[in-house]
Amino acid sequence: MSLRLRLLLLILGLALAPSAAHAAEAGTPTPVVKADVRRIALDAMKAELARSMAKLRLEGYDAPYFISYQLKDTQSHGIVARYGAIFDERSQREARLAVDVRVGSYELDSSEGEADLPFFLGADQGPTWLARDEAPHTPDPEALHNALWLLTDEKYKGALSSFLKRKAQGVYAADSEEEKTVSFTREEPVRFIQEPVPFPFDAAAWSERARQLSVIFRDHPEIFDSEVRVTADKVIRVQTNSEGTELITEETLYAVHVQAVARATDGQLLDNSRDFYAATEAGLPSPEEMERETRAMIAELLALRVAPVIDPYTGPAILAPEATGVLFHETVGHRLEGERQSDDNEGRTFKGQVGKRVLPSFLSVVDDPTECAFEGRPLNGHYRYDDEAVPAQKVTLIEDGVLRNFLLSRKPVKGFDRSNGHGRAQGNRRPTARMANLFVHSKRSLPYEELRARLIEEAKKQGKPYALIIRDMTGGNTNTSTYGYQAFKGVPRLVYRVDVETGAEELVRGVEIVGTPLTSINKIVATSDEYGVFNGFCGAESGYVPVSAIAPAALITELELQRTVKANERSPILPGPWARAKKP
Known about the structure:
The protein is α+β, with helices and mostly antiparallel strands. The chain is about 20% helix and about 35% strand.
């Protein structure tokens, strides 16, 4: 899995069905509507669910014990500007269904033997045709009934097949009592109908703002490509299940992404970006602030072009708050996701460690999707209910260095028999336990200048001529499976070499962070007293979901950096048109 951050949204394109990150705040004016089409959909879903629970059964086989229906209606707007012109401008809407049918019981059900069906199988192996997951855009109950009927039938047959396969496996392999957990947690039904959330988007104004930002790059022909992307997404979710849940939520996410690409003289590809997120259109920064940030981004990229390449390094370093957040996301967060604790294909780093110290005693880690902002900055990982209709909950994962809990969906972990509202998924994929807003708290905090002084002191103690400060990261990735090394990689963007004698800082490039998770994280000896926010998207088994990491700067006594893969590609042969135009 990987933490796909700023670059992710720029390369996925406007056609991606987005994950929304923010619910509307209380008190938002509600537009007058003639009929609540959301309730029409909910009533149709409830009726088809009741029919399926009462009558769906293949003679001689088990009936479903649980069915869940979810509809996600997504509206998206997008604008792309390059070189001072609009290159793409579109709006779209799609509605998708997710149907979960379970056979057996909460203690042991069909999910235990479940596998994704191939698109085409022979008649003796499985279905030769698969039902579509689209839902009607108009409030047509009969059309929705039909779509749900076909999907439910298909999911029921698949669940029966999986359940019988799971029972057959038990003939040869008995479950270990030590490992045994139930298949599905029992949760209280929820009934919540959110008021409609406004979704304004001034396409003309945003087109002009995107165009004006993209014009700035004309003054810098060294930057051979750039892009300004504006997106606005709204997801209406309608969900019901056989336990009695009735849920309607609306979430919106507005974003502006500015990216630029250049090459160093040795051919290394360099990129830089700025990203702005908000739950409302008005919450995005002013044009003046976006221009300031864009010009600062350009200055950083131009400096990187001529920065020296650093040799591989092992020694003390300070990670800026955003970089610390990425480090904890990759080294700790993914390894605390519940499904990984019982999967034989996973390394299960923290299995059996509850109640034991896993981090320095001054550090705590909390995941809290109920928080929508931190010190005025919106948080991408905020939501009210997860994708299994469980209320979002604050979870203390590590307290004073001691492991206390895991991120949990409705797939339980030994010793934890309830979800804590972290079952998440992109679109209509099956939810798994995922991070939301990951907070790193420290009881050993120093003003930044004192932290920097300790960095230099530590470098001198180790006999190093310099130390490093990593001020920005593009993201990272980690391996958690048994089929590989338990390692992680971070991709720093702005790395500064600090001379231990003079304290002077020099921008360098060409390295990436590598290491083993627990070894690296336990090298932290102090943090700053100021926190930063990292907003982005994380990719794992259930797709890409919006996440945030909130952390202080961290002093690490030993951090390893290796050389990045060298690129020997040439820059464009001819100078860019803007360079030609600037000649007197």
